[in-house]
Amino acid sequence: MKQMKDNKKAPALDRGLKVLELLAEEGSEMGLREIAQKLVIPVPSLWRIMGVLRENGYVLLDEDRKTYRLGFKFLYLGNLVLNRTGFRSEARGYLKKLVELTGETAEFSARVKDQLILIEQVEGPDAVRLFSRVGSAYPYLHATAPGKVYLAHVEGAKLQKVMARMGLPQITPRTITSLDTLEKELESVRIKGYACDIEEMRTGVCRIAAPVYDKKGKVAMCLGIAAPSFRICSADRDRIGNIVMNLAQKLTSELKEKNGGGWISFETK
Questions:
Q1: How much is the pLDDT for 175?
Q2: How far, in Å, CA of 175 to CA of 167, rounded?
Q3: pTM for this one?
Q4: How far is Cα 266 from Cα 78, in angstroms, rounded to an integer?
Q5: What values do phi and psi take at 115, rounded to 5?
Q6: CATH no. for 11-71
Q7: Of 141, 176, 208, 216, which residue is most buried, by most CB within 10 angstroms?
Q8: How far apart are CA 201 and CA 172, in angstroms?
Q9: 154, 163 in Cβ contact below 8 A?
Q10: DSSP, res 207
């Protein structure tokens, strides 16, 4: 059979992949015509492509605003890849160690678009402990420790743009709602190497988190603890924060070494 010279043997698939890449790169949801204009795809063709992607869970449609965003199918696929590369077993070892050292529930979270997703958890032994369902989302980055870790790596005009898009809604009386206050908090996160939130997302709950980096030095995931706030005094925050940070640094080094510097990350810009 004569080999085809055209590299685009499946133009619809090629367009579908470009749509997914665009949605991953853009900082907000996009309408059908906006996507069509950016990718130079006829609207009728794009409509059919989006229909297939929706049916298979790769994109979600906001029926009210008529905008699209990536679906959580990517989280499911990412979990499969993580399991097969041995990441999950390695990560659980660090989570168990974190529980052992702090006595609190240990968590791994990752950013998918503008949401934080809990991707793994090991519960603490205390009678009063916290539990969140793996796969659950924390949509407000400014109000939780893992979110502050991600935001601390976004500086200047880009941070202002991100927060203008996402907003600073008040979730609890302790939530930071001022950009100036948030920027000071993020500077502290960069200096200390870990972030805290004390009842900023949920009354009675404290979280402390530190970054796990990829081979390019970007935040791939966050390692942290969740605890009832009455058990975490000011001195505990520093002690636990340093424990979390040290384990996160060890995990970063171990995964880079074992995977030849390769990394799997859910993070999208």
A1: 95
A2: 12
A3: 0.68
A4: 7
A5: -125, 150
A6: 1.10.10.10
A7: 208
A8: 6
A9: no
A10: E
